Structure formats: C-alpha cells, structure tokens
Amino acid sequence: MKGLHIGDLFVKVPVIQGGMGVGISLYGLASAVANQGGVGVISAVGIGMTEPDYLKNLQKANLTALRKQIQKARSLTDGVLGVNIMLAVTDCDELIRVSIEEEIDIIFIGAGLPLKIPAQIGLDKMKTMKTKIVPKLSSGKAVALVARYWDAKYNMVPPAFVIEGPKAGGHLGFSPEDLKAENIQLEDLIEEAVEAVKPYEEKYGIEIPIIAAGGIYDGHDMREIFKSGAKAVKMGTRFVTTYECDADIEFKNSYLACEKDDIEIVVSPVGMPGRVIRNKFVDEIKAGEQKPYKCSWRCIKTCDYKKVQYCIARVLFNAADGKMDQGFSFAGSNAYKADRIQSVKEVFDELKYEFEAKELEAATV
Ligand SMILES: Cc1cc2nc3c(=O)[nH]c(=O)nc-3n(C[C@H](O)[C@H](O)[C@H](O)COP(=O)(O)O)c2cc1C
After folding, report:
1. How many C-beta atoms surround the C-beta of residue 155 within 10 A?
2. Which residue, 1, 236, 251, 272, could crosslink 247 as a Cys pair with Cβ 3.0–4.6 Å?
3. Is 235 in the pocket of ligand 1 (CB under 6 A)?
4. Is residue 218 domain-shared with residue 158, that is, in the same domain?
5. Nearest-CA neighbor of 168 among 107, 208, 129, 225?
6. CATH number at residue 353
C-alpha cells in the first residue's frame, strides 16, 4: 500500500477515518487512527453537546469542545489529524477558524459546495497556513465546478477531493430516488473526478488525489476502488465497531445486531436523505409521530426548527450516548458486516493484509 500525498503532507497509510457526528468520532478514535498511520478525523458537527452546560449556549460550547478535542487528540499522537465540518451548519466559519488556530492538518468540508471558503479564510492565509482544505463532494461535476471556481477566482485549487458515493453512512448527497434505484456507482464517480482534476494537475504541476468514500469496508474493496483511480479511502462504518470509537457501547451494539435489511434510508428534518439502522424510534418517526424537542440554537442553516418532527442533532447525540430508544444510528450500507468489536490496530492490520494478499494474487495469476 502506497502512502498518500496531500500537498506537502504525507499520510503513511492511505486510509482516512470519516468524521462521524454527533459525538461518534472524537479525540479517542481520531488519535488511534492517526497512530496507525492513517488520518484520524474529529467530527465538529454538534460537538458542543459533549460539554455538560451546552444547553446554555450551544454555539459557544461547540467552539470550546472542538478546541479541547483537537488538543486532546494532538496530545496522544504525532500522526495526521483532521476535522470534518459541514457547510450547512450555522457556525461553519467559526469552526474553521478554531481548527486553523489549532493547526489541524486537514479540514474536510462537506454538505455543500465550498466555493467561497478561500475568500472567507483569506487568500494570504490560505497560501501560508499548515491546514489543508479538502472538499467532500458527491460527483465529478461538483469537483469540476469547485476546481474551476477556485482556479478562476483565487488562482489555486484544493489539494485533494473526497468523493462520497451512495453507500455511505450519514446524510447523503443523492436523491432518495437515486438511492432506491441503486443506479449510481462509486467507481464511475471516481473516474469522473479523476478526469475533472486532470487539467488543473497539468496547469499547477501537482497531483490532486481523489479519495473514495462510501461502502469501502475491507482491503479488497480498497484495491477495487484504487483501480478506478482513487489514491486513498475514507471509511466511517468500519471504525464504529472499534474499542476506540467514542460512541457508547449500545451504539456499537446496534451495528453488531443489525441485518442487511435493517439498513434503510430516512429523510432527515434538514431535508437530506440519511442511511440509518432501523429500530423502534425509526418506525415511530416513519409512522409520523411528533417527537418532543427544544431548540436551543438553530444549528443547521436549512433546519425549519419550529416545524420539524424531531431534532436531528439531539437524536444523533442520544444514539451516540447509548439512548437508542430516543434516537437512531447513522450507518453505511455495510454496517451489517460487523461481527465483533476490534481495536483500530486490528482493523489496520486486516486492511493491509487483505489489500496485499489481493495484490500478490494478481501478480501470480
Ligand atoms: C455514524 C456516522 C456518522 C456520520 N456523520 C457524518 C457527519 O456528521 N458529517 C459528515 O460530513 N459525514 C458524516 N458521515 C460520513 C463519514 O464521514 C464517511 O464519509 C462515510 O462514513 C463513508 O462511508 P462508509 O460509512 O460506508 O465507510 C457519517 C458516517 C457515519 C457512519
């Protein structure tokens, strides 16, 4: 397995752990992954809910908690650390500012097109800061759009892109119809994205790696997606069932207990489809049951917070906290494959072994 270059940053093992909110990937999981040579990612969304007094001021709690989590992770590893920030959250700019102040290695920015981010951060700062900004998108078209915009307006391009396909866990950038029809393949999206960055690789004389996410579970999946041109993978689901994952054991147990048919799509109150593990709570919301909630602060820009059926941030944090009767687990389509809790080191050993066994097999045929 070859390492990954993102600009001047080198990642020894081309495995990025997907940022998982709310409260699933914090400093524990992120530092463990970074210590194995991958990129450990802290999810910034709703991170303030991990603070005891967050109800008083969630916005302030988010910034305090993010800073704390980055510092704790950094105290445990010299490896590569990232944060995952969604453009759709109200405090996106502030979360970016804190992450840059803390000199995080990479900010993965998802849930929207990050066209104006360089202007918001400041062009001089963009050129001198240690932190890399890596957009997470769902199509080659979106990659072309962002690269064209950054090139024309700022005379720069992102140093890498993540392409997240339809099999991923969490909120998804595809319509419920496309998800149901299963007519979009990650392999095709990767090939399109690889083509989309080529003109900019030539113009700037750099490599812009494409990182594949969504449904990658083992070393065989990695090898297959590398054939389409991906240079690394971003995996969320696989890291949930690790000792180091920051979620409660009940959350991890929901993965161990689920069958393939239990994994389904719901449309979340913020208007995006999300993949979840079916439980009683999911059945109740699908039956139209209104869930009580108190909105202390409209944390997602698109949330119609006076009318929603339930608070998505609260429900996700309840699940991370083990209160499965008051929430649900986001999960990728391969969550049913988990059959035990492993250490992050075991996951990395397995990924490398499976990947290399396949390489060897191919070389001897
Ligand atoms: C439990 C869970 C929570 C997630 N939360 C977020 C999130 O808050 N923001 C985000 O951009 N992506 C989120 N994701 C997506 C991951 O970062 C990653 O891209 C995805 O898990 C990759 O697909 P996989 O789960 O099939 O490996 C989440 C995924 C899972 C499984």
Report:
1. 11
2. 251
3. yes
4. yes
5. 225
6. 3.20.20.70
Q: Is 268 in the pocket of ligand 1 (CB under 6 A)?
A: no
pLDDT tens string 28-43: 999 999 999 999 999 9
Mean pLDDT of 97-123: 96
pLDDT recorded at residue 88: 85
Separation of 308 CA from ligand 1 center, angstroms? 23
Per-residue pLDDT of 145-165, as tens digits, reads: 999 999 999 999 999 999 999
Distance 17 CA to ligand 1 centre (A): 9
- With contact defined as beta carbons under 8 Å apart, do 47 and 54 qualify? no
- Give the β-pairing of 9-11 and 210-213: unpaired
150 and 222 co-located in one domain: yes
Q: Which of 17, 245, 330, 336 to mutate to test the pocket of ligand 1 (most atoms within 8 A of CB)?
A: 330
Is the CB of 332 within 6 Å of ligand 1? Answer: yes
Q: How confident is the model at residue 308 (pLDDT cuts 50, 70, 90)?
A: confident
Q: What spacing in Å lies between the alpha carbon of 164 and ligand 1's midpoint?
A: 9
Q: What does the alpha-carbon distance between residue 293 and residue 305 come to, in Å, rounded to a whole number?
A: 10
Number of domains composing the chain: 2
How many whole angstroms from 172 Cα to the centroid of ligand 1?
A: 9
Sort strands 39-43 and 80-86 into parallel, antiparallel or unpaired.
parallel
Locate 27 and state its tokens: 């400093």
